[in-house]
Amino acid sequence: xxxxxxxxxxxxxxxxxxxxxxxxxxxxxxxxxxxxxxxxxxxxxxxxxxxxxxxxxxxxxxxxxxxxxxxxxxxxxxxxxxxxxxxxxxxxxxxxxxxxxxxxxxxxxxxxxxxxxxxxxxxxxxxxxxxxxxxxxxxxxxxxxxxxxxxxxxxxxxxxxxxxxxxxxxxxxxxxxxxxxxxxxxxxxxxxxxxxxxxxxxxxxxxxxxxxxxxxxxxxxxxxxxxxxxxxxxxxxxxxxxxxxxxxxxxxxxxxxxxxxxxxxxxxxxxxxxxxxxxxxxxxxxxxxxxxxxxxxxxxxxxxxxxxxxxxx
Length: 313
What we know:
Elements: E1 4-5, H1 7-15, E2 21-24, E3 34-35, E4 46-48, E5 57-60, H2 62-75, E6 89-92, H3 100-109, E7 113-115, H4 120-135, E8 138-140, E9 143-148, E10 151-157, H5 163-172, E11 176-181, E12 184-189, E13 192-196, E14 204-207, E15 211-214, H6 215-219, E16 227-238, H7 241-246, E17 254-259, E18 262-271, H8 277-292, H9 297-312
Parallel strand pairs: 4-5, 5-6, 6-7, 10-16, 16-18
Antiparallel strand pairs: 1-3, 2-7, 8-12, 9-10, 9-11, 12-13, 13-16, 14-15, 17-18
Region (Important for the catalytic mechanism of dephosphorylation): 270-275
Organism: endosymbiont of Galathealinum brachiosum
Region (Important for the catalytic mechanism of both phosphorylation and dephosphorylation): 205-214
């Protein structure tokens, strides 16, 4: 997560996604808008013009500009009042022509002045949406992130254990690749992580012996998924006599792994010659979905055994 955000950061980020122009006030473009901003504080960062409890980014639509002009005529209040210490930037929306007076004041007060053709409400909704992504906590993990049976599944394990080969087999079985090697996970809610692929790695997968493969070109558009919520981690580990003895025959190896303070179920899957890992991953995902829906086969098996023993007595 960014420790702080500046008008320059915000402009460059928004410029990629929405219509916005920088008209004046570039002298303090690297001044921090807000440090350590939490997701639930975004509503105070941007909003319609407010002279009593000003937002850090003041949005001026047609109604707000009409109000300012009226205020200026009736009480001789200066337009410079909106350039307060709290104001990090001013945005004229609705395609309005920005008056020369405002451009001059923005340069004098060293306050960034933007202009957008979007309606003010749409602009505020858009900027809050992009801020939530820009300011969200992010982490890059090593593994292959896939959509399996409709669920986001991260396949992890030591190097050369066969993660990419397993992912390739899952793709041939109709599942979809999101990111190979370095998926990015973003905390978008209290208990929700969204995984996506870095731009430079999109559509590509490295498989030892084959090199880099273009999965989209080889298997088609349906073999690729842009993002997915993380629901399950499958950790591959080599089967040894030691970990074979430690396996719980009833419940398997299930635990909780915490990522960005979000709990995620992790299943350790032993890797050994002759095991069909793709089938096992599919089964693990199906079983995880059943458990989340309240159906636990292990618990039901134990209950059935107890009932059988009671009936036998």
